[in-house]
Structures are given as C-alpha cells and as structure tokens.
Sequence to fold (159 residues):
Amino acid sequence: MFHRSASGYGLLSTLMAAGTLGGSVLAARRSAHGLPRLRVVVGGALVFGLLELVLAAMPTYLLFSLVLIPMGGAVITFITAANSTMQLSISADMRGRVMGLYMLVFLGGNPVGGPMAGWLAEQFGGRAPFVAGGVISVLAAVVCGLVLRRSGERGLRPI
Fold:
C-alpha cells in the first residue's frame, strides 16, 4: 500500500503498540471504579471501527501511522472492558465455562479472519480489509448499543 520495507512495517506496529500502552494505562485507571460500564465496551468497539475506517482513507504513510496511535488505544479499551465485563459479571461457578467460550470466539476467529483479510487485500487492494473490519465493528457496536438501550440494561448482574 505504501511500498515500505520491513522497518516501515515495524514502525507501524510500534506506533499501534504505543497507543495500546497508553490505552492500557487509562483502562487500569478506570478499573478503580469497579465493573466497566457497557457503554465503555460498546463505545470502544464503535471508536475502533470508526478509526479503522479513517485509517483506510489515509492517503500518506505519515497520516496512516498517526491514526494507529489512537486506534491502539481504542482496541485495548474494548478488549479490557469486554474481558473485565465477562469475568466480573459471571457467577464464580460458571466463569470458567463462559470464559472458555468467550476466548474461543475471541481468538477462534483468527484462523478464518487472517486468510479472509489477505484475500480481501489481494482482490480489492490493501485498504479493503480495513474498510471491511471497520464496517463490521461499527455495525456490531451500533446493533449491540440499540439492543442494550431497548432492553434498558444499565448495569450488569451476575448470571
């Protein structure tokens, strides 16, 4: 996409890692308040998806790399809030089973998603996987937000 060497790709990974580091510090600070709110989970997914769409539109390597910093913060915010919500809202006797399923879904999509992203990039260009991921994330966040709002879910109760 930007015709850079391995060191150029490494710099992009480093910038996203810097964003995740900053996001993890903020997540740790927020954890002092107890169970994360569902709006943090849904909002993190929404912001991540929107930033992924912005990332796909960046015309230069410099702008692309700068968007990776807040994107790293958004992704770690979503991951920590979702993980904390799952662990803290499940009763102790069900936690292992539920977390096993959660991790299966969370990590189990990688063997399918990786080749699919590669195929999208090959067929439609390097920006296509970012557009697809952004659209899917935004739609999922909006649907979840609407379902939670409609159900009147404000807090979480142990299952």
